[in-house]
Amino acid sequence: MRRREFLSVLVSAAASWPFVSRAQQAEGVRRIGYLSGTGAAVTEERARGATLVQALQQLGWTDGRNMKIEYRWSDGTPEQIRKYAAELVALKPDLIFAFGTATMSPLLAATRSIPIVFVQVADPVGAGFVESLARPGGNATGILQFEYSLSGKWLQLLKEVAPGITRAAVFRDAALSGGIGQFAVIQSVASALGVDVTPINVGDAAGIERSVAAFARAGRGGLVVTASALAASHRDLIVTLAAGHKLPAVYFVRPFVVAGGLVSYGPNLDDAYRDAARYVDRILKGEKPADLPVQAPTKYELVLNLKTAKALGIDIPPSLLARADEVIE
Q1: N or C terminus of the chain: which is more exposed, having fewer CB within 10 Å?
Q2: pLDDT tens-place string over residues 308-324
Q3: Residue 188 phi/psi, 5° resolution?
């Protein structure tokens, strides 16, 4: 009887081993929420999501094996970002990766405990997302979009590429501290450059079309597009309007120039994602966001589109061509 009982216990244990193994495997899988503020239609944003996955894989994290990423691609509107932020927090992930300034307020309103790693956030201290760049102090840290001083260079570039302009319309998201801050820096250098600047608050497509058409009527104007999720989500429209109204334009990031814009100056976003992946790795291994300083980009890239310049009747100065990191022909 003792032998029969022993065999019975052994069979029962053997039958349970697959379930135990699967349970242990499930417990080892870390769940990551991914919230984008620029929209599923932006091909480059999905490509950068792939860059994050690849960087994490190089650090030992494989989607479907020891981590699972839950994606939410917003259209850039505050309503949808709030909805997706709440959905991700409700899933109780181990960490949330956030792209764009517009994602941060909804996420922090929904959780002060789940770690958040962000990229492309313009002013995390001024917006109250972190206590300081050196010591974030809460549940969020990440990669700074750029320092505000960069914004002044956009207007300088516009004047360099189109010396005849005397007016500039500046696209901004006035609902974000970053939008207000970027415009303030541009205003501060405008007088010295002999340029009168006017803000265009980015909203719906119809409003953007009306604003650009009204601005273009007076002539001798150009555009500066500052960083925001809404501007990114309206990228193709803004580029098309600039071309249609023959307005030289400077953009905050390369994808606008790839889409037909004239010139951009900003950080390399793939680098930002790779840097963010290292923070995701460190937090999943036990470090706290509060102790990880917010990093600034280490490289900025100048991108020019010669085809667009030709269509606008602009001769790019040789000195600017020599400084360019990429020239699209």
Answers
A1: N
A2: 999 999 999 999 999 99
A3: -65, -25
